[in-house]
Amino acid sequence: MPISSIASPPTLQHQCVNFALMFIVAFAEIALAYFPLFFGVSPKLLITIVFLIAIYDEEQNHFINLIGVGLIYDMMQSAPLGYTSGAMILVNLFGILSRHRLKHVQQSLIWLEYAALMVTVMLYTWICIVLINQGFPAVMPLVFQYSVTVLLFPIMIGIYKLELSLMELIRRLK
């Protein structure tokens, strides 16, 4: 069952809600890194939300939102500035280009497409780690991060549906 998008969202309010959602998901992703199961390799939930927004939103996510949340996330993680923003922009562009093809297909096909996209994101992550550390990282943490991220995709769809209902409520209140 495809997700139905909202009809003409207000621009400034819509972008603020998207920014807030990405910001909250970024904090949740950072918090997951402190659990013993995910220590150091939390799932990339922020990438998932960016992918869903790129596919189902009538209004495209502004690059300012992606860069802003990415820079804040990188500062909180002590990662090189622009690392997360680059991955988010890559995923957003892929989602925008695939929007017409993926918007009305079953969610299982979207999940498969997302799994393929996450291979690209994890390759980008691996290349960044190699360039920054000047050495090859362990592969198993990246495989674990990829697996958990892809497995949590249906839960992130539920969170995105909550965001859509919030946008509908804001539109009705206006």
Description:
The chain is an all-alpha fold and 174 residues long. Helix 1 packs antiparallel against helix 2. The two termini are 29 Å apart. The model has no long low-confidence stretch (mean pLDDT 86).
The low-pLDDT segments are: none
Beta strands, count: 0
Describe the main β-sheet briefly: none
- Please state roughly what percent of the residues sit in beta strands, choosing from under 5%, 5-15%, 15-25%, 25-35%, 35-45% or over 45%: under 5%
Distance between the termini: 29 Å
In terms of quaternary structure, what is this?
A: single chain
Helix-strand blueprint:
Elements: H1 11-32, H2 45-56, H3 63-77, H4 83-102, H5 107-133, H6 140-151, H7 153-173
Helix pairs in contact: 1-2, 1-3, 2-4, 2-7, 3-4, 4-5, 5-6
Task: Quickly list its features.
mainly alpha; 174 residues; 74% helix; single chain
Q: Can I get a quick summary?
A:
With 174 residues, the chain is an all-alpha fold. The chain contains seven helices and no strands.
